[in-house]
């Protein structure tokens, strides 16, 4: 069994206030490693949640915090639990996680979800699209991340994101790439891609004309062409829908375009 520690509060109840956050967080990292913890994670939010004290309480930027922890640890895996897809552009996100992985000696994991906390978006002027669009952006973000963590540095053309070049140097140290965890709550999506899906004739590498940019793919014809990445909708339904490993046992459901299922209160999926 592998254990993890999740940091949800940066309140430091000692003299020094904000100046004490760094030294305290460093001690947390060292204590986690001394206890044999495998994974150390922190929240990724702009504002502290109401359940943890409210927006007036301290909240650190996620990847800056992980970079700090990387310098004060040597073995523990590092991740955000989890990044909202709206927080950072996909190409930049892939670059950030790659940098963390290289500087930590191959200890980064990408945790990502569709985002939910509308207040923090409004507070800092960050667009907060409707839920359907956020799921579409999540699917495209995962495609972009996988393409950037590969030898393919060509263009990517999706419904929401267009990248002229997916150059990423240096590449992450972890082989074949940093693991990916999908986090979320609520109703599971049915198997099948969103309205961003192109026709099957245009989605497979074999059908693409030379030089044609990569784009979003359908779950039926292309789910195994994106270097091991299954569609989000497939991931949320069943083991048989894609090469993923669940952290908790998924419901026994059959993957079909018309099928949908209810999630437990919360769930996460981790690629291997």
Oligomer state equals single chain
DSSP strand content: 5-15%
CATH architecture of the domain at 82-187 and 245-252 and 265-271: Alpha-Beta Barrel
CATH superfamily caption of the domain at 82-187 and 245-252 and 265-271: Luciferase-like domain
- The number of distinct β-strands equals 11
* Gross geometry: globular
CATH topology of the domain at 82-187 and 245-252 and 265-271: TIM Barrel
Total of helices:
7
How would you describe this structure to a colleague?
- 26% of the residues lie in helices and 14% in strands.
- The protein has 272 residues and is of the alpha/beta class.
- A five-stranded mixed beta sheet has the order 4-5-8-11-10, with no helix packed on it. It has a three-stranded parallel beta sheet with strand order 1-2-3, with helices on one face.
- The longest helix is centred in the middle third of the chain and has 18 residues, at 131-148.
- It is globular and about 50 Å long.
- Mean pLDDT is 76; it is low at 191-212 and 215-267.
């Amino acid at each position: 069994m592998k254990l993890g520690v999740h940091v949800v509060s940066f309140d430091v109840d000692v003299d020094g206030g904000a100046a004490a956050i760094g030294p305290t967080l460093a001690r947390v990292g060292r204590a986690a490693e001394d206890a044999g913890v495998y994974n150390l994670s922190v929240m990724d939010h702009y504002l502290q949640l109401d359940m943890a004290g409210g927006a007036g309480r301290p909240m650190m930027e996620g990847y800056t915090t992980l970079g700090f922890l990387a310098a004060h640890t040597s073995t523990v895996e590092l991740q955000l639990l989890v990044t909202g897809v709206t927080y950072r552009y996909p190409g930049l996100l892939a670059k950030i996680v790659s940098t963390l992985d290289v500087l930590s000696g191959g200890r980064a994991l990408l945790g990502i979800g569709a985002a939910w906390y509308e207040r923090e978006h409004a507070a800092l002027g960050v667009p907060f699209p409707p839920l359907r669009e956020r799921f579409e952006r999540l699917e495209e973000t995962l495609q972009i991340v996988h393409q950037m963590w590969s030898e393919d540095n060509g263009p990517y053309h999706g419904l929401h994101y267009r990248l002229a070049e997916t150059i990423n140097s240096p590449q992450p140290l972890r082989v074949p790439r940093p693991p990916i965890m999908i986090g979320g709550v609520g109703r599971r999506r049915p198997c099948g891609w969103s309205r961003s899906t192109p026709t099957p004739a245009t989605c497979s590498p074999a059908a693409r004309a030379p030089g044609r940019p990569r784009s979003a793919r359908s779950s039926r014809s292309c789910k195994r062409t994106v270097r091991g990445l299954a569609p989000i909708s497939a991931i949320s339904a069943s083991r048989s829908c894609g090469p993923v490993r669940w952290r908790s046992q998924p419901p026994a459901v059959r993957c079909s375009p018309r099928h949908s299922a209810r999630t437990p209160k919360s769930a996460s999926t981790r690629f291997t």
